[in-house]
Amino acid sequence: MYIATSRSADSAAGIPEARSAARRRVSGNVLALGMVSMVTDISSEMVTAVLPVYLVLGLGLSPLQFGVLDGLYSGVTALVRLAGGHVADRFGRFKAVAGFGYGLSAVCKLGLLAAGSSVGAIGAVLAADRTGKGLRTAPRDALISLSSEPEFLGRSFGVHRALDTVGAFLGPLVAMTVLWLSLGSYDAVFFTSFCVAALGVLVLFVAVRDRKKAAAVRAKPSLAESAGLLKIASFRRICWWAALLGLVTVSDSFVYLLLQRRSDLAQVYFSLLPLGTAGVYLLLAVPLGHLADRIGRWKVFLGGHVALVCALLTLVGPFDGVLLAVIALALHGVFYAATDGVLMAAAGPSLPEHLRASGMALVQTGQATARMVSSVLFGAAWTAWDLYPAVLVTAGVLAVVVLAAAVARPLRRAGVSA
């Protein structure tokens, strides 16, 4: 199953039209993986949309306490990403490893029901949920990369992330609807989330085809080989800069909490804030992926971080009310559309096929670890300095790192398309 994209035909050297069009198509496997991510993201975003207000306004956690839990939620995937990528490469079972991760995350939605108001139990369940995400992410992205033409990786990841974002857009709407119908029951949200996640696992096993290894690369890679990927100069630079930029970003949950504090938004409407980010992400994921293929993936990746700097400054600027929310959430959506899939598209060409999942796991691990530390640091800064100083310092440091990454141009220095 394939769908054609809109790029102009390449008939210059007498290449047949059909062959030229085939190279410009997005694989049906990419579409199937996008559908799995869409359904799964409905489930996960239902929880993500209500979790900050549930923990901070419902259970009374301080910004520092929430920062620790949010960092755990974002960063516990670090080591298991490496494990998921290595196992998928070693045994050539990308679909099975990803499926296990999706299944674990689904079961954890029921764990939130059992955790009740215990912060420790909630933290343990969130850690297990993120373990599932960590296990599935690298094998899934490797399948996308291996199912796509190298010159159109940005577009393939853009299509996948666009479908994923449809789920991110629908998730908060479903969460708000369930809260309204259940008269504010968070348990009802968690149970509905489990049912949707289970459907995503079913779609994976029915619709996604695994990618078998070619005969030349059937040898099982060792951990030493996977770690040895960092000897590749272009790939090492990508890992380093992705981690450094992750260290100075602000997590989604804090962005939404900042908006809630500035606008004094009612709790029942808090879950709608991610819709602004998701809507812009949905509109721009494919165009920015295509743009990254044309002008350079690193340029688009850094441009996304510039958008995040602007979003942070907007949150402490003169705007308020609806205008503040529209501008901040639009810039936040641009940040994700320009960075999420684009980073994986940038890393893919520098990695050998038989280590593709392991390599992508390394990039994701560095970034996830850095964002875990970032959440704790930002929570501590907010607690110690209050809102405005914490945001201004973070925006300033992020701007400096983005400028340094622009000057360094790690991909071009290594002879890879920038």
Describe the secondary structure blueprint for this structure.
Layout lengths: L1 E3 L12 H7 L1 E3 H31 L4 H13 L1 H15 L2 H22 L3 H28 L6 H29 L4 H22 L15 H5 L5 H15 L4 H12 L3 H4 L2 H23 L1 H19 L5 H27 L8 H30 L1 H22 L1 H4 L5
Antiparallel strand pairs: 1-2
Helix pairs in contact: 2-6, 2-7, 2-8, 2-11, 3-6, 3-16, 4-5, 4-6, 4-16, 5-6, 5-8, 6-16, 7-8, 7-13, 7-15, 10-16, 13-14, 13-15, 14-15, 14-17, 16-17
Task: Provide tags for this entry.
mainly alpha, two-stranded antiparallel ribbon, Growth Hormone, Chain: A, 78% helix, 418 residues, disordered C terminus
Strand residue percentage:
under 5%
Q: Assign the CATH topology.
A: Growth Hormone, Chain: A
Put simply, the count of helices is 18
Low-confidence parts, pLDDT < 50 over ≥5 residues?
1-23, 413-417
CATH C-level? Mainly Alpha
Physical arrangement of strands within the biggest beta sheet: 1-2
Main beta sheet = 2 strands, antiparallel
Order of helices and strands, N to C?
EHEHHHHHHHHHHHHHHHHH
What's the domain count? 1
Helix content: over 70%
Assign the CATH superfamily.
MFS general substrate transporter like domains
